[in-house]
Amino acid sequence: MLHVTRLDAATMIVEIGSVRLVTDPVFDPVGTESHFGFGTRSRKLTNPPIKPNEIGPIDAVLLSHDHHADNLDDAGRTLLPGARTVLTTHSGAARLRGNAQ
Hints:
The chain has helices at about 75, 90-95; strands at about 1-5, 10-15, 20-25, 35, 40-45, 60, 85. By secondary structure, the protein is mainly beta. The strands form 2 sheets. A 5-stranded mixed β-sheet has the order 1-2-3-6-7, with no helix packed on it. The protein is globular and about 45 Å long.
């Protein structure tokens, strides 16, 4: 069984049988600003449809990159320690440490 729930532009919950994956967790509230360098930024216009603690057990977080809040914000970071594994880039794993590979 495959079930995909889209929560945000990059955030999805992917359930394959009993395995639960979360992609690029972004859960900061409406109004939060993210800065990307070179004078660029974004502001969240909507709240996430659920809170991080409502997801349930996470087998793995699939993280494309950790250095911009459009793919990992402060609230999303709260999920990482509770996930069995965080799969990301080599440099991201070095920055995040813990369960990041």
